Amino acid sequence: MELRVLRVNLSKGMLRDEVLPKGFVENFIGGKGFAWLLAKELKPNVDPLSPENKIIFASGPLTGSGAPGFSGRHVVITKSPLTNIFLDTYAGGFWGARLRFAGYDAIVIEGKSEKPVYLWIHDGVAEIKDAQDIWGKTVSETDRLVKKDVGEKDTSVASIGIAGENMVRFACIANDGGREAGRGGAGAVMGSKLLKAIAVTGKPSDKVSRVTIANREKFEEACNELRDLLAKNPLTSILLPSLGTPGFVNVANALGGWRVRNAREGVFERAEEISGETMKGKIFVRSTACYGCPIGCRKISQVKEGPYACTVEGPEFESICLLGANCGIGDLEPLAYAAYLCDELGMDTISTGAVIGFAMELYERGIISKTETEGLELKFGNYGALIEMIRRIAGKRGFGSILAEGVKRASQKIGRGSEYYADHIKGLELPAWEPRAFWGHALSMCLSDRGACHTHSPVLDLDMSGKLDRFSIEGKPEAVKQGEEFTAAKDTLIHCLFVSQFAQLSASFCAMLVSSAVGIEFSEKSFLLVGERLINLTRMFNVREGVTRRDDYLPKRLMEQVHTIGPTSGKVLSEELLDKMLDRYYELRGWDVKTGVPLKDKLRALGLLESDNL
Fold it and tell me: Which residues contact 465 (CB under 8 A, 6 or more apart)?
C-alpha cells in the first residue's frame, strides 16, 4: 500500500506529490505514524514558530472507510510552540475523510508565505489561494467565506482564528463547526506560516479517493461486529447519545476527580448547574456525529437571548471543567458563551481555562493586582472577567499577552512565587481529570509524549472503574506501559477514544480490522509493536529537545497539597511514590532509569537506532 502525500512549500509557493518509502505502512501504518516523518526531517532545536518548523495533516488507513469510530478523524503533527516538544493533536468531523476523498493521505507544510494564504485540495490536485481578505476573521466567518470561494458542496475547512494569527501558544485548528485539533498550539504554527485555512473538497464516490479496502467481506464483518458492541454498551448507546461528554460532569464531581478553582479541590458545589443533565434541559438543541459514527455524542447548544446569546458545539466536558469549575463558575449561559468565544477565536479551551484559573488564584493571593490586569477583577466566579480575558488573550492585549504564553512561560514572566501555582507537565496545562484522584492517570500524564495528556493511556478507565485501586501505585507502571502502546497503535488508525475504549476493542480485533483494509497482515503482536516503536520514537524526539527524567513529574504543588473535602480528601501522590512508579516503568520500557532515555539495545530492537536525527 502506497500513501500519497502533498508537500507544500509556502516560502517558494511550490506544491508536489510524494509517495512514502516502501515499508512505512508496515512499520508505522499512518496517523500518528507520521511522527517518523517529522523526526526524520526536522532538525533539533528548531523554533516552533519559525519557517523551519513543519506541520503535518494526516489521515489513517481507515479514515473515510465507514468503520465506526475510525472514519471521521485526522491528526495534526508538529513541534509544539507551547512545549517545544513533539505534538500530535486530533480532531473529528468530516475533514479527514474528505482529505482522502480529495485524493491525499497526508499534507506536509513547510516554510512561510509572504502573505496570508489558504490551501484548497480537490480532485487530486491542490492550489494555494489568496487569503488576505479573510485574515482577521473568526473561525465561522473563515469557514463561510472559504466555502463560498471554492463552492460549498462536499467541502470541509480547517482554519485558525485570531488567536492563531497572533500566535497565541495554545491556539487551535478548527473544522466542521466545532471540531478542533485543540492541544499544544498547532494553530499558532499555522499562523506563523500565514496559512489561514486548508479546504478539502471530496465525497466517497470521487474517482481520486484514497479510500480502498483490500478485503471488503472481512472488513464489513468487523464493522458489523463493532456496531453491535457499541449498541450493547450503555456508555455508547445511552449516555453519550443522550448527554454527550457533559454526562461525565456529575461522575467526576462524585469521585472528587476534576479541577476546581485551579485545582484547590476536586469537588465543585455548583456542578449540577453545569452538568449534562441540566444542559439537556436548558440549552441542548440537537445531536450530530462525525463521519461514519453511529453514536452522535456531539451536542449543539444554544443560548437564545441576552448578552450571552450564541450557538456552540458542546460545551464538552473538558471545557465545562476548565472554563467552569476550574474558574469557580457555575453559571451555564456565560460558560457556554466562553466556550463559544474560544471556538470563534480559535483557542484550546483546556489551556485557556487553565491560564485564567491560574491568574485568578494569583489575583486572590495578592501576587498580581488590578495594576497588572488593567482593572479587571480576576476573582474565581467572575464570569465577566473570564469572558473579557479570553478576548484579551486572543488579541494578545495587556495582561492577556502574558497569559497567551501558557502557564509555564507566564509564571516565569510574573515571578513572585507564581510558578508554584502554574500546573503543567512539560509545558502543557493539565486537563480536567485530577491526578490526585487517579494515580495511574497521573503517571500516564507524566509520561505522555506531548505533556499533560488525558488520552495517552486508558489507565484512567481502570482507576475510575475500580479495576485498579485508584489510590495505589501497585500495577500502575505495567498498566500504563501496556495501555499507551495499544493507544499509540490505535492512533496510527486514528481512533475515537469512546469507540475503541468503551467497546473494549482488543489489539487482535484492531489488527484484523487494519489488515482487511490495507492488505498487509498484522498480528496482535506486530500491531502492538508499532505502538511501542512510536512511543520510543517520540521519546527520542523529545530527548533531543532536552527532555529527561526530571520532566516526567507532576507539578510540585500537586505532590504536596491535599484536597480537604470529598472522597479524595487527604490523598496525595507524593514524589516518593511517583519515583517508585517511574523506576519500574523505565525498567519495563528498556530506558535508562536515571535519565529516562531509551537504551540503544531497545532502539536497535525496534529498528530506530539508525533513524535520521534520532
Answer: none
Helix axes 332-345, 139-150, angle to 10 degrees: 50
d(CA 194, CA 141): 17
Map residue 381 onto helix, strand or coil: coil
Instruction: Kindly indicate the confidence band of residue 613, based on its pLDDT and cuts at 50, 70 and 90.
Output: very low
Q: Return the C-alpha cell found at 463.
A: 482507576
Mean pLDDT of 60-75: 96
DSSP letters spanning 254-288: HTT-B-BTTTTBS--TTGGGGSHHHHHHHTEEEEE
- C-alpha to C-alpha distances, 527 to 447, 497, 515, nearest whole angstrom: 21, 18, 10
For 299, other C-beta atoms within 10 Å of its C-beta total: 28
> Is residue 109 within 8 Å of 12, Cβ to Cβ?
no
282/261 Cα distance (integer angstroms)? 25
Cell numbers of 365, please? 493571593
Q: CATH number of 244-428: 3.30.70.920, 3.40.50.1980, 1.10.569.10, 1.20.120.1630?
A: 1.10.569.10
d(CA 601, CA 590): 8
In CATH, the architecture of 439-553+574-605 is Orthogonal Bundle (1.10)
Query: Domains of the chain: which residue ranges?
Result: 4-201, 244-428, 439-553+574-605
* DSSP reduced 3-state for 398: coil
Q: How do residues 73-97 score in pLDDT, each as one tens digit?
A: 999 999 999 999 999 999 999 999 9
| Residue 416: count of CB within 10 angstroms of its CB | 11
User: Using one digit for the tens of pLDDT, what is the confidence trace for 144-199?
Assistant: 999 999 998 899 999 999 999 999 999 999 999 999 999 999 999 999 999 999 99
Total-model pTM? 0.97
- What class is the 4-201 domain? alpha beta
591 forms beta bridges with 598
- Contact predicate 257/442, CB 8 Å: no
Tell me how far apart the alpha carbons of residues 522 and 528 are, in angstroms, rounded to a whole number: 9
DSSP character for 170? T
